[in-house]
Write a structure and sequence with these properties.
The chain is α+β, with helices and mostly antiparallel strands. It has helices spanning 17-23, 42-55, 72-88, 122-136, 175-183, 202-209, 219-224, and strands at 62-67, 111-117, 142-154, 159-166, 196-201, 232-236, 238-243, 256-261. Strand 3 (142-154) and strand 4 form a beta hairpin. It is globular and about 45 Å long.
Length: 262
């Protein structure tokens, strides 16, 4: 018997999804107790599980992003936050020889993450490109506003990922894109999308120092830094399908597999 955690803390599934879940094989790499169903449609849950069955031996390969690195004001705001974090973020004891700067997002790679994908074939890549092209036909350049800091993974005392949040979650239109990628079992993102711009990531620190699961105490920087205290408005003019791993060098943006200009 597998329980599923609901945001309300109720682990009893008293709705039609229960019958569906009982017929699906939950991929071994998923922790069922941490899977938030959150009133998703049965079809979405079905595609979610099939995606993980298909890709269980593979990591994410690509992601859909909205590049923000071209905006000078945003880059300066991020650099200011980096300066504050260098003084205020507390490293765990086992990382005392390292430096927090190696956990920072390179300003030349600033972006909003839409969703993660695993593309295992040329057919998968072609389908992802087609979905992005069809979706973007109706889009024009638009503005987003970033304001405030939040912990995306971990806790303020042991933060794995620190992000700048959208001031207003006004991009629900992109839920149509993530839904299409989910239906084609190229992504496991369940709408609604959680928009964010990553500022600090323990993954970058681990990659540099060959450590694992590094997390940082960010309580002081969130409380004291004035960065992102006021709204920062950025114009979005492109949608990227980007390779997750890139050999383009530390100063290059993630290698694009496809770019759609709005």
């Amino acid at each position: 018997k597998v329980d599923y955690e609901w945001p309300q803390g109720n682990k009893t599934l008293g709705n039609p999804i229960q019958d569906l879940l009982s017929t699906l094989r939950i991929p071994p790499r998923l922790d069922p107790t941490g899977l938030f169903v959150d009133h998703q449609s049965p079809d979405d849950i079905k595609h979610f599980c099939r995606f993980h069955e298909k890709t269980q031996n593979h990591a994410y390969t690509h992601f859909v992003s909205l590049p923000l690195y071209h905006d000078a004001a945003l880059v300066e705001e991020v650099k200011r936050l980096h300066g504050d974090a260098s003084e205020l973020v507390v490293l765990p004891k086992r990382c005392h020889q390292g430096h927090i700067t190696h956990a920072f997002t390179n300003p030349t790679k600033l972006h909003l993450t839409v969703c993660m994908l695993t593309l295992l074939s040329k057919e998968d890549m072609a389908t992802a490109k087609r979905i992005i092209e069809d979706f973007s036909l109706k889009l024009k350049p638009f503005k987003v506003t970033l304001k405030g800091l939040d912990v995306l993974k971990g806790t303020p005392e042991a933060c794995r990922v620190l992000v700048a949040n959208l001031h207003e979650q006004s991009l629900a239109i992109f839920d149509n894109l993530t839904s299409q990628l989910l239906k084609n079992e190229l992504s496991d993102t369940l709408p609604p999308t959680r928009w964010h711009c990553t500022i600090l990531n323990g993954k970058y620190y681990d990659r540099h120092y060959k450590t694992t699961n590094s997390a940082f105490d960010v309580r002081k920087v969130v409380r004291k830094s004035t960065a992102f205290g006021k709204p920062v408005e950025v114009l979005v003019g492109q949608v990227h399908l980007s390779c997750l791993n890139t050999n383009s060098g530390s100063q290059a943006y993630y290698t694009p597999a496809h770019i759609k200009t709005l």
